[in-house]
cysteine-S-conjugate beta-lyase (Vibrio astriarenae), 401 residues
Amino acid sequence: MSEGKKTTLITAGRDKKWTHGVVNPPVQRASTIVFDTVAEKQQATINRANKTLFYGRRGTETHFAFQDAMVKVEGGAGCALYPCGTAAISNAILSFVETGDHVLMVDTCYEPTRDFCNTILKKMGIETTYYPPEIGAGIRDYIKPNTKILFTESPGSITMEVQDVPTLARLAHEQDIIVMLDNTWAAGVNFSPFEHGVDISIQAATKYIVGHSDVMLGTAVASEKYWDQLREQSYLMGQCVSPDDAYLGLRGLRTMDVRLKQHAENSLKVAQWLAQRPEVDHVRHPALESCPGHEFFERDFTGGNGLFSFVLKTTNPKATTALLDGMDHFSMGYSWGGFESLILANEPKSFNSLRTVANPNFEGTLIRLHIGLEDIEDLIADLERGLARYNAVILENAVTA
């Protein structure tokens, strides 16, 4: 981006052709677009793929404004919209594969991404090979003559490994392989996908773009080489979103920089506090050296957010339950990226069904946190009380053993 990141987030998608002179574009709801003349209808038909009112599923001016904004924020040539992040992932892949193709998928991918590969792609006769997130130049050994897509996710889901995306992309492009990235953690602003070799950058805009835990929304921004195919294939598969949701995604961009900075500041303080706790084996926060791939975070990212994990030294489901059940400010819930703090636990055995080649080399329970915008002192106190409950159960077990 030639202008500053904050400026881009404030100004992107505010062209007067979409806003008509007001600060925010109106929410334009439409299915049918009507035309006064045959010539007008023909012109719309010719330009239907180029942000022209044609039919509701092609988009309205509200959608066009959000799409413009996403392209300005991430780069690329165009942005396709989807009803959720999983739809963005699955339809981006489906737009470029056919029976007999091979997909390279990072083993630390989002669980629904793995399920999609193991069910839908398998049923279509498309092979998926899972590769370790830290493979780097070793990806050469995984590439086949029929490899069509290299899919990356950095940091990885749950265990937070940061990938060497530029190296992976360079080697994939040598074989004309399409490089896709789940860029949700960086929210499109803390990792510039097209500057690091990515062809299609995918996000669950549900997370930090919307930022308020009230909308399901997905985006995929593509380079010029792949934009037309992504757009048309996604359209043929019926992908579209509500203009109200597109509006909320656009509105979320305006405050995303300040929200991300506060999330990042809060999470780093919590991570550093946890790193000193006797119950904690290690912390998996990309900004800390204890996180696998930290060197790539330092090199390629411009900031963090609120999502990270830490690993306890032991595994005791009863103690973990005691920790989780009494939290005041951390709620248990899926997703992340909203203003609120969240907590989830993963026992080591749960990774057996989630991983093929990247099973984590630790034995304790992993706790994933999303650090929200609450007072940091309240969050740390809440975790301290939770760990006290955890320790009480561990002590009780030791006494009765």
Observations:
- The first helix runs from residue 5 to 11.
- The first strand starts at residue 78 and ends at 82.
- Residues 135 and 163 are 8 Å apart (CA to CA).
- The chain has a mean pLDDT of 96.
